[in-house]
Amino acid sequence: MRVIRYSILASLLAALALLAGCATTKPYDYSAYQSHPPQSILVLPPINQSVDVNAPYIYLSTISVPLAEHGYYVFPVAVVDSFMKDNGVAEPAEMQQVPLAKLDQAFGPDAVLYTTINDWGQKYHVISSDATVELTSHLVDVDSGATIWKGHTRLVQSSNNGSGSLLAEAVVALVQQVAGSTHDYTRQVSGQANTQMIGNPNQGLPYGPYNPKSATDARRVSATTSR
């Protein structure tokens, strides 16, 4: 009887795990995107909730490439940042409060990408170090003001692969901690996190009109390619 009970319990746990897996991979509802498919995207500087003051600048340096490779025209992020500051809007939180009509008048984008940095930085442990990047983004159609896509990603890259001796791993961790003062590993992780969020098969941003895969992307089936 006990064996049967364990078997039933194991089956229930497996079923719950399967259901949990299905829940996390549920496809995103792209109906809003399909109603307002953008060609160009304006990326605003992110709101930084981490303790790393350099995080927004590193993020901005790593977001344009994955968006462009995905098939969108991306307004130069440095130009956007400088333009906003030159016009008296200095902080990312203030920039993200600028009305869409004003952004449309100044730049003329199809959509605006708003991002919040939830977590960012390098953390050192006894025998390892972790570089962490967590982002939340949403894309807003300029004409309608509708949110046409939301994304979230958290990526942690650890230096410890568990392959060496305890002493060797401790030495490596010490070296990386010293090197961390001159080399910022979050830049690499930020690029990977952006690519991961944008390219997620079930939750990512659909291919834009300048990517050849756009025509066969099922998430754009009912979308038009022009405004």
How do the helices and strands line up, and which of them pair or pack?
Layout: H1 2-24, H2 31-35, E1 40-43, E2 47-48, H3 55-69, E3 73-74, H4 77-86, H5 92-95, H6 100-106, E4 111-124, E5 129-141, E6 147-158, H7 166-179, H8 186-199
Parallel strand pairs: 1-3, 1-4, 2-4
Antiparallel strand pairs: 4-5, 5-6
Helix pairs in contact: 3-8
Secondary structural class: alpha/beta
> Number of DSSP strands?
6
CATH class designation of the domain at 28-118 and 131-154 and 185-204? Alpha Beta
Q: Which CATH architecture of the domain at 28-118 and 131-154 and 185-204 is right?
A: 3-Layer(aba) Sandwich
Average pLDDT, rounded to a whole number, is 82
Beta-strand proportion: 15-25%
H-E order: HHEEHEHHHEEEHH
Radius of gyration: 21 Å
Which regions contain 5 or more consecutive residues with pLDDT less than 50? Answer: 2-23, 223-227
Assign the CATH superfamily of the domain at 28-118 and 131-154 and 185-204: ABC-type transport auxiliary lipoprotein component
Named CATH topology of the domain at 28-118 and 131-154 and 185-204: Rossmann fold
Task: Give the overall shape, derived from the CA principal axes.
Answer: globular
Would you kindly provide a written description of the structure presented here, covering whatever features stand out?
The chain has 8 helices and 6 strands; from the N terminus they run ααββαβαααβββαα. With 227 residues, the protein is of the alpha/beta class. It has a domain at 28-118 and 131-154 and 185-204: Rossmann fold. Strands 1, 2, 3, 4, 5 and 6 form a 6-stranded mixed sheet that branches. Helix 3 packs across helix 8 (186-199). The protein is globular.
